[in-house]
Amino acid sequence: MMKNIIQMPDGYLNRTPLFQFILLSCLFPLWGAAASLNDILITQFKSVFTLSDFASALVQSAFYGGYFLIAIPASLIIKKTSYKIAILIGLTLYIGGCLMFYPASHMATYTMFLAAIFSIAIGLSFLETSANTYSSMIGHKDYATLRLNISQTFYPIGAIFGILLGKYLIFQEGASLHEQVAAMTPEQLHDFKLAMLQHTLQPYKYLIFVLIAVAFLFLVTQFPKCKTVNEGKKQDVHFIDTLKYLLKNSAFKKGILAQFLYVGMQVAVWSFTIRLALNLSNMNERDASDFMVYSFIGFFIGKFIANFLMTKFKPNWVLVWYSVLGVITLAYTAFVPDFSAVYAAIFASALFGPCWATIYASVLGTVEQEHREVAGAVVVMSIIGAAVVPAIHGLVSDSIGSIQHAFIVPLLCFAYVGYYFYGKRNETK
Predict the structure, then answer these.
(1) Which position has the higher pLDDT, 238 or 247?
(2) 380 and 67 in contact (C-beta within 8 Å)?
(3) Cβ within 8 Å of residue 175, ≥6 positions away
(4) Contacts of 157 (CB under 8 A, 6+ apart)
């Protein structure tokens, strides 16, 4: 399977090994499913635990906080071993996090659920730290950005799968949870909440089997190292020296901020789309979750279109126009007081598509070879934006009493993303 594959001195390959690239790309929907299930859990926990919008957004804080804490250790493991080893560690930890939903669903405390979500995020941090960089490396250097965008195109497939699992296995038929809870006695409410929390376990049972199968395929498949030829010398660079180098790299820091705000706005919009649909209609949670399916379909289509446009135009210009449309669309979402605002949020998801991969490849392009693994980890650490921006969105919503007007928070984030790419518009790659 590795016949005629030659590794260049800079770690890139002369061509992409197709099977390995497909298997690597299959990791992207696996963390997409976990991330989209958070959007279901936020809505479920909001009613079951009677949470404020800020408190319900702590689901995302626990999830993406795990990314932030583990990305650097994951990068050091990659540096000492290989991308494949880090991926296998990530899959094992992901399985362990899913298993924690067994005790969480029985203990029925919000804190225990947050601990299970945090545990899953530890595994996903290993996966993203390794797979994003590896996808950009596993082929010719000239197509690194396109290759990562193609891998990222698999993400919404997993996200849709996660939403459907949540829709049919967590959400139930009948009136909305808020309406059901309001009509119950304290005894009925206690039993009802326990039953609802038992449902949260179901999607993770199915994920465990999928993860075991993928881990087995990685275990038995040969993968290229995709590391610089003079690896021994490069590993002599101290971690602290790399951090000093990155702190002095202004282009790198601007890219980190763009990634921080991009991931934050994406997760904020997705966290509150179901809630927006519930607030602007009389539907229940199961029906409202359909709009997240539409959002991820739009996300997939937006990525596909962007991949095509990037073969015709400079990627930075494509992102400038995506960002302009995104700001306009989120302004509509925030301020038009009818149900069409939900469809605007769905369209905004289509415009999120190419941002992560393009920023990621752009940021890695600003650093020297010997700092690549740690730089990639810092970019993954910027995912902490998804722990911060949704919480701010929820806090603004609680403060002004409108989940819809609070969409101004992701709007401002998209404006900076557009500004970032406008500043890079004349670069050749």
Answers:
(1) 247
(2) yes
(3) 284
(4) 29, 32, 300
Q: How many CB atoms lie within 10 A of CB 182?
A: 11
**HSE-up (13 A, CA, CB side) for residue 39:** 34
How is residue 281 written in tokens? 């209609």
- What angle (nearest 5°) sits at the alpha carbon of residue 144, between those of residues 141 and 147? 135
- Contact between 390 and 268 under an 8 Å Cβ cutoff? The reply is yes
Helix residue spans in 26-109 (DSSP H)? 27-48, 53-56, 58-80, 83-99, 101-107
Fill in the amino acid letter for 380: V
- Helices H / strands E in the chain, number of each: 23, 0
d(CA 333, CA 331): 5
Q: pLDDT exceeding 70 applies to what percent of the chain?
A: 93
Residue 232 has pLDDT above 50, yes or no: no
In sequence order, the β-bridge partners of residue 13 are 7
Residue 74's pLDDT is what?
A: 84
Dihedral in degrees, nearest 10, Cα atoms 309, 314, 316, 320: -60
**Cα 275 to chain centroid, rounded:** 19
Nearest-10 crossing angle of helices 202-220, 155-169: 150
- Check: CB of residue 55 under 8 Å from CB of residue 390: no
Nearest CA to 24 out of 137, 122, 123 is that of: 137
Structure tokens at 379: 């970019």
Contact between residue 285 and residue 278 where contact means Cβ atoms under 8 Å apart: yes
CA gap 95, 87 in Å, rounded: 12
Q: Which residue in 162, 188, 177 sits closest to 33, CA to CA? A: 162
Going by pLDDT thresholds of 50, 70 and 90, the confidence category of residue 177 is low
Is residue 342 predicted with pLDDT exceeding 90? yes
- Lowest pLDDT segment from 77-86, 140-149, 244-253, 275-284: 140-149
Residue 175: predicted pLDDT = 60
CB atoms within 10 A of CB 183: 9
Calculate the alpha carbon distances from 169 to 51, 268, 339, 353 in Å.
22, 23, 26, 27
DSSP tag of 13 = B
Domains of the chain in sequence order: 18-220+241-423 (1.20.1250.20)
Return d(Cα 278, Cα 120) in angstroms, integer.
Answer: 28
Q: What is the mean pLDDT of the chain?
A: 84
pTM of the entire predicted model = 0.78
